């Protein structure tokens, strides 16, 4: 009689081990990087950490820069977290903190959280070809061009940062065809250019389009002394811009165009809802400007108080597919809307006679608001803007 032996094989699922490393001003890179024996440099930590690891950086001033070239993974980011007040002073280097996924580098799915970054010749924090990376709760100020700069990076998140006094250009700049960025809860002020810029750069390599961006709950004020809208969009498609407060800026409010590359590259199929854009002096431009065939826009439930110009500006080729209604518009200059192609200026009743903005109202700020400051604009009870919006489409 033949005996049959049954062999049981137990296959164990792989176990993911993660590590915590520590950096401190009084550390030493010869240490093991533990809580009791931390390292001294951010770069040593970045060169060591792998997917799922966390770098804890203790309070202090760090006169150094860091370049992340290792890859985390979705759900297992490499995190670099400031504990207490941590300032990275780049000392004139190009970048303060840099997540680099270009060519020989593999940086992606890295999170930088809680740092103040200053003194960079170009930008405080950069994400380059580094998909899935996150910048959260950082303060980027006094850098040569930008606070936060990203290029060719998809699925990034820029959350709850403060970017101010960046000298030549923008607080936040998302560039070069990066898709699905989330830009939420940031405060951008007193930057020479835009508070927030998304420019897909059609003239550069790549498809020249940024799609499915979410730009929401941001506060931008005092930007644009050298030009540039508070939120400046070039070749941005299928995106949502909502619940932003843009006040006291020196150039435009929200500007949409093709970066001068013609109507094939305008911003298309975007939704602008629940934004409050207020110019309190005569140096502001238009609250929302659509040019270079920035078509099929949805504009609902926005409060648009124009300065020396008005609420809305369109090129003639941007009117196709426009849905605009249930907004509050007012202009210190009197006219509400202009179509650039024939230099036709309209008061709100004249604009409505053409079949648009039937439920939009003209209300001056003293009637509209109880309070006006960068911490929040509160509506007067019973004013025309209360409980008068439409379904948001977002």
What's the short story on this structure?
With 394 residues, the chain is mainly beta. 4% of the residues lie in helices and 37% in strands.
What does this structure look like?
By secondary structure, this protein is mainly beta. Helix content is 4%, strand content 37%. The chain has three helices and 38 strands. It has a 22-stranded parallel sheet that branches. The protein has a twelve-stranded mixed sheet with strand order 3-5-8-11-14-17-21-25-28-31-34-35. Strand 1, helix 1 and strand 2 (54-62) form a beta-alpha-beta unit. The chain is elongated. The termini are far apart.
Describe the global form: elongated
Q: What percent of the residues sit in helical stretches (DSSP H or I)?
A: under 10%
User: Sheet with the most strands?
Assistant: 22 strands, parallel
Distance between the termini: 74 Å
The average pLDDT is: 92
* Total helical segments: 3
Q: Kindly state the number of beta strands.
A: 38
Estimated share of beta-strand residues: 35-45%
Could you name the ranges where pLDDT drops below 50 across 5 or more consecutive residues?
1-7
By secondary-structure content and strand pairing, the structural class works out as mainly beta
Radius of gyration: 24 Å
